[in-house]
């Protein structure tokens, strides 16, 4: 697959998603970039903004198998991974919903840490261990999780170790213009049903999507100057006066991978600093722990990344991927 064909397939996938989901195209492109990088995505925003619909439409668009888990306080790890049951005198594995391509973990912070931890191995290693036996997951596999930032009663905040396994944290936000609000209503009338995803047809096959992931991994060049730029951004988060704990090296790897996907989606086989800048906030901010006094003052992790991008010198000559 040539890069121009790659770009066209990405454009078709984004348009197919936006034909159902009313939202910013740039937001959908970043979600697609994370999935092309084999990364997991955390959607954090208010209820009713279409996060669940977006995940389901995207899975249909790439011809992937999709499953959804509603996280609740009584959800058990076995409800996610599966378990072995006795049938006809022998134990057989009953696979849980994690055995899929796209797993939506809806309201992930409503289950206790033990249940949340059931996803850790799958998110990082694409495998699941059940009663000492390891099972590989089908590829591609990625978790799309949602959480509500305003209702904290009865929730269990995601530990830093799990937040670190999400490549991007995205917030769709409210529609910016009244025309977008009207478009949501107009499409609901046209669909004549609450779930329009059954009519969505794949624009990319699952095999083609795997090939696209391979192109991002193996064929996109990153110069030493751009790698130094990424490393400098990550290191600068640890030195910011408002930060207690800065980004881990995994944050730099996430920024590298998703920047390669952004470059490929633009039809380039090399990464430029603008690719890095475009996803730095979404890739790194959720990995930071602020000093308590700055958090109380209302300072946000996103502001740290904005400060860092202003301070870190952009490499010269990197615009051409040199």
Question: What does it look like?
Answer:
This protein is of the alpha/beta class and 322 residues long. Helix content is 45%, strand content 16%. It folds into two domains: 1-219, Rossmann fold (3-Layer(aba) Sandwich), CATH 3.40.50; 220-322, Orthogonal Bundle (Helicase, Ruva Protein, domain 3). It contains 14 helices and eleven strands. A hairpin with a 2-residue loop joins strand 3 and strand 4 (90-95). Helix 1 (3-18) packs across helix 2, helix 9 (206-218) crosses helix 11 (249-265) and helix 10 packs across helix 11. The mean pLDDT is 90.
Question: How are the SSEs ordered, and which strands pair?
Answer:
Layout: H1 3-18, H2 25-36, E1 40-44, H3 51-61, E2 66-70, H4 77-81, E3 82-87, E4 90-95, E5 102-106, H5 113-116, H6 120-125, E6 127-130, E7 133-136, E8 142-147, H7 160-163, E9 166-170, H8 178-191, H9 206-218, H10 224-239, E10 243-245, H11 249-265, H12 273-284, E11 289-290, H13 292-296, H14 301-311
Parallel strand pairs: 1-8, 1-9, 2-5, 5-8
Antiparallel strand pairs: 3-4, 6-7, 10-11
Helix pairs in contact: 1-2, 2-11, 9-11, 10-11, 11-12, 12-14
